[in-house]
């Protein structure tokens, strides 16, 4: 069994300096790879001089998270890939529990460990927390994080559990399935591509899991700050792309989601965040511009789908629960309201 830890880097020398030593120290017999996305800082020279034993691949361009990983992983042979953000700090024994869980059930295609905030280490981190879910309108949320509300880690999510999507910040995935399903959708560039891939896997009956026995600390927003309008654009656009491609029923669901997005855009205006309003508008325009290609992808996915494993879908509206019902934590949600 071969395991490859693969770090995608773009101008992240400071993160490599801070976190790569722990990856090397705590990754047992796994091969360590850094795929550089045409960095313009001195990341590559730093790696060659300081960590010559780390495998290095250099992409010709910065194709974002999606293309960067796709290009790199085509050149890496392993049974399991561990896709790890450059701004992630790993801990002792972070790999074995996850690989053991994957080995326990061949239908588990991918999983993630517990993701805590590297700067405030008692709290979950926004990107992934304790496993990802989608609500009835396909808004993503996590155990440990619902919208901007992040919980303190008190051991409440130390279990192993089936989820709907696993974070790309620390994604364990079977290499054969990654390639069989075409990897990440490169039109996404960055953000939501892991949700799209997990959804496609689940449409063929595979499972996505969370492993509470493993912990990773994540800085978050290391390449693009959470409050940057470009991140708003990518999140809104790619979420709509994901729904268009993977929703089982009528595309009327897409227009429901776009209407809700419109409310969010108006709220940005109310906060005088005009660039974020523009980002939502531009995201919606992108859907119409790419309608034809999205429709073709939808047809291909529908043709390839076998049995949809809907586990991890929340049957109700998480937005209403949060903003009108005062929802503060995942534990307040009822198990019967999930598939």
Main features:
nine-stranded mixed beta sheet, 2 domains, 20% strand, 339 residues, globular, Spore Coat Polysaccharide Biosynthesis Protein SpsA, Chain A, alpha/beta
Structure commentary:
The protein is α/β, with parallel strands linked by helices and 339 residues long. The protein folds into 2 domains: 3-218, Alpha-Beta Complex (Spore Coat Polysaccharide Biosynthesis Protein SpsA, Chain A), CATH 3.90.550; 229-305. It is built from 11 helices and 13 strands. The strands form 3 sheets. Strands 1, 2, 3, 4, 5, 6, 11, 12 and 13 form a 9-stranded mixed beta sheet that branches. A two-stranded antiparallel ribbon has the order 7-8. A two-stranded antiparallel ribbon has the order 9-10. A hairpin with a 5-residue loop joins strand 7 (132-134) and strand 8 (140-142). Helix 6 (193-202) runs parallel beside helix 7, helix 7 (229-246) runs antiparallel to helix 8 and helix 8 (252-270) packs antiparallel against helix 9 (274-289). The chain starts with a strand and ends in a 16-residue tail after the last helix.
Architecture blueprint of SSEs:
Layout: E1 3-9, H1 13-26, E2 31-36, H2 43-50, E3 55-58, H3 64-73, E4 80-85, E5 88-90, H4 96-104, E6 108-117, E7 132-134, E8 140-142, E9 145-146, E10 149-150, E11 160-163, E12 170-174, H5 175-180, H6 193-202, E13 207-218, H7 229-246, H8 252-270, H9 274-289, H10 291-304, H11 318-323
Parallel strand pairs: 1-2, 1-4, 2-3, 6-13
Antiparallel strand pairs: 4-12, 5-13, 6-12, 7-8, 9-10, 11-13
Helix pairs in contact: 6-7, 7-8, 7-9, 7-10, 8-9
């Amino acid at each position: 069994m071969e395991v490859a830890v693969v770090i995608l880097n773009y101008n992240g020398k400071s993160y490599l300096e801070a976190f790569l030593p722990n990856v090397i120290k705590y990754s047992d017999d796994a091969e360590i790879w850094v795929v550089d996305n045409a960095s313009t800082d001195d990341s590559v020279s730093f790696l060659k001089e300081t960590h010559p034993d780390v495998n290095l691949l250099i992409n010709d361009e910065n194709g974002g998270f999606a293309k960067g990983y796709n290009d790199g992983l085509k050149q890496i042979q392993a049974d399991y890939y561990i896709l790890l953000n450059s701004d992630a700090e790993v801990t002792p024994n972070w790999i074995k529990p996850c690989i053991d869980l994957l080995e326990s059930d061949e239908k588990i295609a991918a999983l993630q460990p517990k993701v805590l905030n590297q700067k405030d280490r008692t709290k979950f981190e926004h990107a992934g927390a304790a496993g990802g879910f989608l609500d009835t309108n396909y808004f993503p949320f996590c155990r440990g994080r619902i919208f901007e509300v992040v919980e303190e880690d008190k051991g409440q999510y130390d279990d192993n559990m089936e989820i709907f999507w696993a974070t790309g910040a620390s994604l364990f995935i079977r290499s054969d399935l990654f390639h069989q399903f075409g990897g990440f959708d490169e039109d996404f560039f960055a953000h939501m591509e892991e949700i799209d891939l997990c959804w496609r896997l689940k449409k063929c009956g595979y499972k996505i899991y969370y492993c509470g026995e493993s912990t990773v600390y994540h800085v978050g927003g290391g390449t693009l700050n959470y409050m940057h309008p470009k991140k708003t654009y990518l999140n809104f656009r790619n979420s709509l792309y994901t729904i268009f491609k993977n929703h089982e029923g009528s595309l009327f669901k897409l227009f429901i989601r776009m209407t809700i997005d419109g409310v969010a855009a108006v709220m940005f205006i109310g906060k005088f965040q005009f660039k974020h309003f523009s980002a939502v508008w531009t995201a919606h325009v992108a859907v119409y511009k790419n309608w034809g290609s999205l429709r073709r992808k939808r047809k291909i996915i529908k043709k390839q789908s076998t049995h949809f494993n809907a586990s991890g879908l929340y049957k109700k509206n998480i937005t209403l629960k949060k903003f009108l019902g005062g929802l503060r934590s995942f534990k307040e949600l009822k198990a019967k309201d999930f598939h």
